[in-house]
Design goal:
heterodimer, A: 194 residues, alpha+beta, Gyrase A, domain 2, Alpha-Beta Plaits, 2 domains, 5-stranded antiparallel sheet, 5 helices, 23% helix, B: 88 residues, 40% strand, elongated
């Protein structure tokens, strides 16, 4: 049996055979995209010393094509979708003179993107937090519950990105598909991509 | 749904939080009489009034303090632990 396209990859595991909805509500798995989480005393100062201007807590900044998520005073996540080289450079510098510690977000967290015209409607079913455009801006972060699990969510160009415990990715895909079934006026294939 | 105001994340549903109980004195075990140490370990206060408690906002793993009225269960205020350190 082929391993699932959804993390964690494991033939016969919980995510095996999980389908990601497609169409008016689409889910895509970015878990394999490069990212780096830095946490603990000194991490903010280290990043600042390397030229990154850090946003306020629960806001997003940018540096060399990366998105800089400030999840706490000393809890920062760098998302490097399409900016792998810039991140590799920074990680190499950090390995030479580490400050704080790696929070292993590249292995511990799944990264799913909810997109399509029904994304806002589905998110309002999945998350109790007010994510309407006039309340929740492009550089805002919500650390809350999405689909009943602890998650970090923010806007992407396509819709919303959601980061959560990687072991719950199959559960999350099913929960998003269930929310999609309530959005009935446009076509959604809940048995979409494997 | 009951709401609690997280100092870092703002007002959230109470089920996003975990309670860690009241802030307690930290007596030095070497300088405390056995009876007092035993009281510290095994006896919980059960009084009326205002208590300061540890809470955690689970999705962001952020620990903070809340002042709560033990009779009315009203949360008077929530604040970052650094505020308490500044006071003492």
């Amino acid at each position: 049996m082929a391993a699932s396209a959804v993390f964690p990859f494991m033939a016969g595991g919980a995510a095996d055979g999980t389908k990601l909805p497609a169409g008016a509500l689409a889910l895509s798995d970015l878990t394999a995209s490069p990212r780096f989480g830095l946490k603990g005393g000194g991490s903010a100062a280290w990043l600042t010393a390397h030229g990154i201007s850090l946003p306020a807590v629960n806001h997003i900044g940018a540096y060399h094509g990366m998105r800089i998520l400030r999840l706490g005073n000393e809890d920062i996540l760098l998302l490097a979708e399409g900016a792998g080289e810039a991140l590799a450079e920074l990680k190499a510098a950090w390995a030479n003179e580490p400050k704080g510690y790696s929070s292993w977000r590249e292995e511990g967290w799944a990264w799913l993107r909810i997109s399509g015209p029904h994304a806002p409607q589905a998110m309002s079913r999945l998350c109790a937090f007010d994510l309407r455009a006039d309340r929740f801006g492009v550089d805002d972060i919500a650390q809350t519950r999405v689909g009943h699990i602890e998650a970090v969510t923010f806007r992407s160009q396509a819709g919303f990105d959601v980061l959560f415990d990687v072991t719950a990715s199959a559960y999350f895909a099913r929960t998003a598909a269930a929310a999609a079934r309530h959005c009935t006026d446009l076509l959604i294939d809940t048995e979409g991509r494997p | 749904m009951k709401l609690l105001i997280c100092p870092m994340n703002g007002p959230r549903n109470i089920d996003e939080f975990q309670s860690f109980g009241p802030v307690r004195a930290e007596p030095d075990p070497d300088r405390t009489a056995d009876a007092d140490w035993s009281r510290h370990l095994f006896r919980a206060e059960n009084r009326r009034g205002i208590v300061v408690e540890w809470w955690r906002h689970v999705p962001s793993n952020y620990f903070f303090l809340a002042e709560r009225d033990l009779v009315t269960n009203e949360v008077i205020r929530t604040f970052d632990p650094s505020e308490r350190r500044d006071q003492s």
